Amino acid sequence: MATKRLDEAVKRRVRAGRMLLAGKTPAQAAQAVGVARQTAYTWKAVLDEGGIDALRAMPTRGRPARLDDEQLQALGRALLQSPTAHGFGTELWTLKRVGALIKRQYGIQYSQTQIWRILGALGFSAQKPERRAIERDENAVQTWKRKTWPALKKKPSAKGD
Predict the structure, then answer these.
(1) For residue 6, how far is the Cα from the chain centroid?
(2) Which end of the chain, N or C, is less surrounded by CB atoms within 10 Å?
(3) Could you tell me which residues come within 8 angstroms of residue 99 by beta carbon, excluding any fewer than 6 positions away?
(4) What are the tens digits of pLDDT across the range 47-92?
(5) Selection from 50, 46, 43, 51 nearest residue 27 by Cα
(6) What is the 8-class DSSP label of residue 134?
(7) Strand locations in 32-153, DSSP E?
(8) Structural domain tally of the chain?
(9) pLDDT one-digit tens code per residue, 6-25
(10) Mind listing the pLDDT tens digit for each residue in 16-52?
(11) CA-based radius of gyration for the chain
(12) Residue 102 within a domain
């Protein structure tokens, strides 16, 4: 994931650099590659100083990822398994449990916000578990809704009170 993102960033810079060399303005290049105009001006300064190779060699901003691509894929596979297979008591993955799994497998502790981001990057989404008792009697529920509930509902008075 991090390597792929890096490759895309380099391709974007080089594409913008070629546009700038072809006479496009930084604003036009920025719009074409989907970056802020100021970013294209920064790239133009680097390009003017050292050419296309300088754009390729620009350092990527941000903290390096603590989990590599292989670890992220393994985490994704682990999350497709049952939580009980990983020692948890119920069949529900929570941010706290995912964090515990990451800590246990890789020795890395993340905040719940970062765990949420990792799950999103892996293609997982929030799911609300169905909260129904196993013992629930659907026929009894429907009967109650049709007969008992209407009798309990407050009826408007004839006076409009």
Answers:
(1) 18
(2) C
(3) 109, 110, 112, 115
(4) 999 999 998 888 867 777 888 889 999 999 999 999 999 999 988 8
(5) 43
(6) T
(7) none
(8) 2
(9) 578 888 999 999 999 999 99
(10) 999 999 999 999 999 999 889 999 999 999 999 999 9
(11) 28
(12) yes
> Where would I find the beta strands (DSSP E) of 77-120?
none
Please check the confidence at residue 1 and state whether its pLDDT lies above 50. no
Judge whether residue 5 has pLDDT over 70: no
Distance from C-alpha of 99 to C-alpha of 109, rounded to nearest angstrom: 7
For residue 9, tell me if it sits in a domain.
Answer: yes
- Whether 156 is in a domain gets the answer no
Provide the domain limits for residue 101. Answer: 69-121
Kindly state whether residues 52 and 75 are assigned to the same domain.
no
Amino acid 111: pLDDT:
94
How far apart are alpha carbons 135 and 106 in whole angstroms?
40
Whole-prediction pTM: 0.50
